[in-house]
Amino acid sequence: MFRAKPPGADDVCGRDRLASAEERIAPRLAEIFTHAAVGLCELDREGRFLLVNDALCSLLGRTAEDLLGLGVADVTHPTDLAPSLRLLESIARDGQIRSIDKRYRRPDGQILWARSTVARLERDGDGDGDGDGYAASFLVVIVDLTDQRRAEHALVEGEQRARTLIDGIA
Fold first, then answer.
1. Which of 80, 81, 70 is nearest to 43 (CA)?
2. Which of 79, 101, 145, 152 has the least C-beta neighbours within 10 A?
3. What is the pLDDT of residue 15?
4. Phi, psi of 114 (to 5 degrees)
5. How confident is the model at residue 29, as a pLDDT?
6. What is the pLDDT of residues 7-58, one digit of tens each?
7. Cross-strand partners of 48
8. Spatial distance between the Cα atoms of 42 and 28, rounded to a whole number of angstroms
9. Mean pLDDT within 108-117
10. What are phi and psi of 135, to 5 degrees?
């Protein structure tokens, strides 16, 4: 999981140390995932939620139980769905981390603007530990941009009103 060099077949002590480190790290990572201040989730290859944290539930206005029965298509604004699915497809192919600014739909009808940064998570498909696996799932980090977008919109509207007023004076 977090190794720079895999232990050799004859390195029993190294494997034991690695297993011990992984046993200590896993609960800590779970705690970090749970308590992160940004939305975090794991999606399967089809874009269905596998894991979600409390921050994501709050952002999307849904319980974890609700989200775990849904996929990207169920929470994404219809206009932003096709680009979102293309993003997942391209990351599945090449493994490059990418971000997309998109809208999410909450059950109460509110729209949430967010930046979603997506990374491919791999599983070693042949068991030899060489990391040449396949895209098993995706890790998504979701940051709320709604207030920023509203401020940008208000600024544009203010500039337009100022131009109209100046044009009227001239």
1. 70
2. 79
3. 66
4. -150, 155
5. 85
6. 454 555 666 666 677 788 888 888 888 888 899 999 999 999 999 999 999 9
7. 71
8. 17
9. 95
10. -70, 110
Say how far apart CA 163 and CA 1 lie, in whole Å: 58
Q: Which string of b and e fits 82-119 if b means at least 16 CB within 10 Å?
A: eebeebbeebbeeeeeeebebbbbeeeeeebbbebebe
Alpha helices in the chain (DSSP H): 12-35, 54-60, 64-67, 72-75, 78-94, 146-169
Beta pairing partners, 142: 39, 116
**How crowded is residue 125: how many other Cβ atoms within 10 Å of its Cβ?**
10
Report the distance separating Cα 15 and Cα 4, nearest Å: 13
Residue reference for tokens 């040449």: 132
Pairing of strands 39-44, 49-52: antiparallel
